[in-house]
Amino acid sequence: MEGPAKINISSLVDDSQLGLFQAGMFTLCGLCLVMDGFDVQAISYVAPAIIREWGIPAPVLGPVFGAGPLGILVGSLLFSVLADKIGRRPVLIGLTLYFSVITILTARAGSVNQLLVLRLLAGAGLGGIMPNAMALVGEYSPLRTRAMLMMIVTNGFNAGAAFGGFVSAWLIPHFGWRSVFYFGGAAPLLIAVLMIFSLPESLQWMVLRGRSPDRVAMWLKRINPAAQLGNATQYIVDEEQKKGLLFVHLFHNGRASATILLWVVNFMNLANVFLLASWLPTVARAAGYSASQAVLVGAALQVGSTIGTLVLSWFVYRLGFIPVLATGFLLACADIALIGQPGLPLALLFVVVFIAGFFVTGGQPGVNALAATYYPTYLRSTGIGWGLGIGRLGAIAGPVVAGELIRLEWTARELFLGAAVPALISAVVMFSLRWVIKPAAAAGASDRLRAVPAPR
After folding, report:
1. d(CA 320, CA 188)
2. Positive or negative CA dihedral for 363, 456, 378, 15?
3. In this predicted model, what pLDDT tens digit does every residue of 127-168 receive, in sequence order?
4. CB neighbours of 61 closer than 8 A, spacing ≥ 6?
5. Does this model's pTM top 0.85?
6. What is the radius of gyration, based on Cα positions, of the chain?
7. Measured between alpha carbons, how far is 368 from 447 in angstroms, rounded to an integer?
8. Nearest 5°: CA angle at 15, between 229 and 240?
9. DSSP classification of residue 202
10. What would you measure as the largest C-alpha separation in the chain, in angstroms?
11. CA-based angle 337:338:344, to the nearest 5?
12. Chain centre distance of CA 439
């Protein structure tokens, strides 16, 4: 007598065709990341207007620029682990509601200290969005296009940051800087409502945790309507569920070296991402450009990152993560050094900043996707979240250190020559990963991933 049918969730998702159900779920995650990027970047767009309205020197906003990443650090570490415990779906929905409310309150800030506290609180919610959205997208993606899809959806963050620049350039002259935060807080409320009704939970997570087989069956049928499922069907995955402190497992079973190197890349690259994103509009304004031109210089960085992620995702699909990202960070090093050169025409400044965004900010989704393909399901949000959390230390240090250097009267040329160094370190460390990740996630987003699973 035959036993109950067994369905391997991992194999079914790996071999599935990309359908409307997955596309809709990816769209929701992407929209959530769009507003994540918008809200993270909003403070740099409104900074020149705040400086003028409040009559404060620019370096005073250095701690405010650092407060958001500090909150994101806490959120990345805390909520990524929580999601691996209670599920991606409730954490993602709850945090979207939370950061939308705090962002609306930010519009009512009346002092630098109030602004600092509110950005810290908002950052705590924003920090949990990226790792959970990425994990959920990866866990519903066909294997052959998984990394490329993760990079494309994650690009919503960059698109939101770029979109925020254009929206801010229009809103600030017409309605003042506070309108940027009203918009940035209202839109996520609608997205959260849509997620409540339409966002599924991770199938792999549910099976590993032994949760709701009827809901597993419901979502599996949405992925593959031809799947033969019944009340007695058993669902399995190719991974084991391990207990204990998930953070500790980042260093077990040969993962320690890769984890540390991924942390270094995250730290260095996010230091540059937030230094450039935070200070470019203010530096451009100080160089004599108009307020709208200064905001658009910052937006050029985000436009470059949006296009860069799309282009780099294709190259990752063809060549693998490590050669593409290492080369990109090396090119970014040379480009960042050009940003502060005196006498650059505005058009050329836009080009140079665009290229920096293309490789620096555009490369960060690749780093995130590399982590997502490397860590197993039970550790995936934790792996991505802790990598981003350590990266947020760099995101804090970058803007704050830059503010101090500006206070010490460093020229723009000296500031951006210094900013080129983290990009060089990122390139060297990324290249070093080829000897540590052999050849699991290093192979990139192709069928080669199937041959070498991530360590358990």
Report:
1. 34
2. positive
3. 888 888 888 888 888 878 887 888 888 888 878 877 888 888
4. 43, 47, 50, 51, 112, 282, 403
5. no
6. 22
7. 19
8. 75
9. P
10. 82
11. 150
12. 24
